[in-house]
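Retro notes - structure team

What went well: the batch runner handled both jobs without manual restarts.
What didn't: labels got mixed up in the shared folder, which is why I'm recording both outputs here explicitly, each with its sequence directly above its tokens.

Job 1
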Amino acid sequence: MAKRKIRTREIHSARPTIIGEGEETEYWYFKHLCSLTKTSAEVRRDNFGPNVLRAFERRIKAILDKNGSVVVVFDTDVMEHDMAKRRWMQALKKKYCDHNDVLICDSYPCIEYWFLLHYADTHKLYSALRPSDKVVKDLRSYMPAYSKQSKSVENPKWVASLRADGQEQAARERAVKYAEDSKQYSDGQSYTNLYKFFDKYPPKA
């Protein structure tokens, strides 16, 4: 009798590749965060920027084809008034919502809402007119020197300050409380899925 051939599933890499549509903030945040938390992840400059947004699915597929795992980071405010982009975002999230090797970490209006949760317990409804600017204004109440384009984001001190005094854990708990699938959430309110990164890749430091 011929022996039964047993197929084994290849084990995917535990070291994720992080890709995002932000050229500065997202790149430097994850660069510093992974260094400070001793999280093993691939954070490369060429995996961030608006051109990456247009190629998300192609890049995800390329990483998965190599048995890798990927974290996708983007702001959704830019898609609020663009129905084509909004449908694309919803389809992307639905496609990978249960995928073990793809983690979608989107934020509305922007990643700065995640930073704000380190200091404030809020899920306010920001007006549709330039909501990201309003989040940044609120964030500056706690981080006066913060700027999306400032060279200061290249210094890890601002990320270290976010992690101080239990603020990171507080942000994670608040993000869960106001998540899209929570009782607190209603359409148009702020949310962030950045907490999922910490759930999947717990800090080692």
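Job 2
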Amino acid sequence: MNYEISYVLPRNLVNAIDKFAIQTKSTRFEIFFIVWASVLAQVTGQSDFCIGVPVRQRNTPSLENTIGCYINMLCIRVREIPIPANLTIKSIHNMRCNIRQSLARQDIPLYKILELVKIERNERPPLFQTLFALQDNPHPYLKLKDVGSTFIRQPYLELPLELHAEIWPSPNGSLELSLSYQTKYISTQLAEQFGTLFVNAYRDQ
């Protein structure tokens, strides 16, 4: 069974995060990813793990207008990352370099990596069991004469991974952290711990 919980990052907090990203010469995605990885390390006690990141495969002009879904799952390895309270400019820089090195190799298909590492397969997804995505799709509007409409994001019917963390934009400039999880592996209490630590990591700075 799949559940979903969400948290709001208010506009003033988002502005502060963007300012911090500029100060550390990072992108918004990199800061969010680093904090998410740090939260995972704190809660699970693991110091060496991977996170899946969906990346669009339209990085050449010839593919920009091609119809179809061009997405690859990028596996980013996280090692020895401090907990959120202990993150420093140096640790952010190190992880940022790791992220950019991984992104530079995004054209390598995931199945090729699986062939190379030869991980013994079982019922759990290989390499990583959690996904992180920063969505930049504009908030959709449906304009109808004399009729109001409200956009409702539909939950996933199935989750290929045990824990999905996605950040979505809102029309008012705030962001929404959506955590989708398989209750077979992640309890609601554990999911709430992930979400609370993630949001509070920015408020505590």
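One thing worth noting from job 2: The mean pLDDT is 87.
We'll revisit the folder naming next retro.
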